[in-house]
Amino acid sequence: STAYNHKTVEKKWQKYWQENETFKTDVWDFSKPKYYALDMFPYPSGVGLHAGHPEGYTATDIMSRMKRMQGYNVLHPMGYDSFGLPAEQYAVTTGNHPAEFTQKNIATFSKQLRELGFDYDWSKMIATSDPKFYKWTQWIFKKLYEAGYAKHIDMPVNWCEELGTVLSNDEVIDGKSERGGYPVVRKNMKQWVIDQPAFAEKLLEGLEEIDWPESTKDMQRNWIGKSTGVEVEFEIVDGGKFSIFTTCIETIYGITFMVLAPDGEIVKSLMDRVENKEEVEAYIAETAKKNDFDRTELNKTKSGCRLEGIYCINPVNGKKVPLFIGDFVLASYGTGAVMAVPSHDQRDFEYAIAHNIDMIQVIEGADVSEHAFEKQDYLGKGCKLINSEEFTGLTVEEAKVAITKKLVDMGVAKETVNYHFREWIFARQRYWGEPVPCVYKEDGEIYFLPDEELPLILPPLDDYKGKNGKAPLENAVEWKQYDKNGIKGVRETATMPGSAGSSWYYMRYIDPDNDKEFANQELLKHWMPVDLYVGGPEHAVGHLMYSRIWNRFLYDQGLSPVKEPFKKLVHQGMILGENGIKMGKRFPEFVVNPSDIVEEYGADTLRLYEMFMGPIEVSKPWNSDAVQGAYRFIKRVWAFFTDEEKIVDENDNTLTKIYHQTVKKVTNDFEELGYNTAIAQMMTFVNEVYKAGKCPKEYAENFIKMFSCICPHVGEEIWQILGHNDTIAFEKWPEYDESKMVEDTIKVPVQINGKTKAVVELPADVSKDDAILAGKEAIADKLTGNVVKEIYVPGRIINIVMK
Ligand code: ANZ
Question: Model ipTM?
């Protein structure tokens, strides 16, 4: 055979696949079961692929190749999440349209991806910044608006007066703008948002039916932050009332003060009654400088002040309770007010110490002089109430029920659920995103463009930089004016966030050229959900939550056939530098460029190496020596299986057992994405084949089919050398026979009176008499007494009982 040359082999097969459209999926072919394998599509940055990309992409590639051989009609598409900041920055500095930069990068990425030999159906490539695509992003957003889930409402934002713009939390440092150091305040402004809490219950339920990592499901549950409790109304002395939300109603006799959110409505309504108005106003102004994150940080000092002269009444015992404000209470959560129980809530405890307020312990079981005795420490432990009138002596769990009932019967309480999950702010003051397709009419009403006017295309600008921090689209003075069919107004100039297109792109791949609907319903019914989705864990609560929301919305509208879009999810681990340090911008010396590896060793080596590094899910360091090891293994496979003399027609059964074991292990491991262990088994098989010196043709061919999923170029080439002239991609996946892989001998301990004296190797199907005979032979020199009993436990033990 000739020597292995990765360059000629890989070029040849990439050309073949492209010319023959080998991996083009006929989505209308419903005659086979479907399999939809999806990768998280990349942002086409200026630097091209990094070593982390091929890892997840190879994982789905192997799966899709196996599924194709198993008789599935496979959809494995690729595209680009192509709106975003780098392209916009390029446009600002060069004055060129960001689409130019984007297209150039897409071309580079696509070339690199083709060089890795993935089985993508390139005819279905999409890019979120393509108007043909974003027409439907706009259309779905309009649907969300019409259904009441997309809203234009007042939201607290970080406002910088000097820059005249809204800043994101990470652009604000210590109440000042990162750029320029100007003061930033929290201010209510009209924003486009999507009402995520409206989907909270459905999202929680949906998690039960999908095969996702438990840790990711937990992150989503925590993010949604469902909290069940009671809302209780408190009368204000001299008129008025307000409600609090608590998850610990059992502590109501321990209230010694109340805390209101400084920026909430309740405080506003009390302003003309407070005796220390100046102090209160100053504190409110102070609070406006902080974001929620700083406010709720656990170990910050609990600042605030009293609302002098204001009291409320505890409904369970009629006690007069003083009111305070404190920034740890958020206006946007629950009712924006809390009943403070310093003995049983650490934040209240610290606030009480700082403001010199009494404490009353109401749950027994710990000393509360240094620290609060909190619910995570008393729940479910049988702790009992004290200092709680008729509820004293009840367990916490009993008291929760009884006190709630009392308050509900009094007509001052109701059980409620809150979610920590907030509105998803859905607009940015940026150019390179989907324009929100609406107009603010002269009468102030919002008008969404009729479907015929979609896509609303981004107008090219002379200057892509927003003036005075305003949205860049404000520069499109003419475009901004709308006057059509009697509707006059100005267009929205904010654009959608990066996560808009990626929230539904997986449906578009199924029918990417459809200009009548976002995707044909019959096709969606056949192809959804995605069977396997692979991508980084950093998307656990962002993209993966947004996608579930958009899909669930479309499902509720009858436009998606499934409640959950991604049936099985797998996160790939990070590829670290040689010394275990995260690769990337901070450590450019450790960056491994996949194209360099492809050049030197070939894509098959890179694929094999990345899959052999360890389990997909874990992070692992790059190892250049192991890259060479992968290369050597391919050469070893090549040398044997392309050698005509070694591939034989007769089967002397030397390899039968290892062959069936290999087919079984590879099939099962592939199914679970256990590629490293599957490869280890293939290596064992190849060792055995070398030992045997020849290999039956059937085994050789079936081995190459499995091997070709990992190393498709060399797999195709060997397949051809074995005498085939068609692609290997649609060959039938090998089957294994359990009966052919049983061990033919067994090792059995031989005992005298229960103590092991020797071990004998016997045929697996040995008879009782033969086993005992062999056992006695092995210990003949020790058989000195009277044998009274001979026991054989098949396959396990031979025991000779002697006196
Ligand atoms: C009294 C109490 C006593 C509380 C006790 C806890 C322990 P989650 O689980 O996050 O829902 N809370 C309510 N609204 C708040 C707001 N807007 N800002 C800050 N804190 C708020 O937490 C609910 C608990 O957080 C509520 O139960 C309330 O304090 C506080 F021993 O009420 B608790």
Answer: 0.97
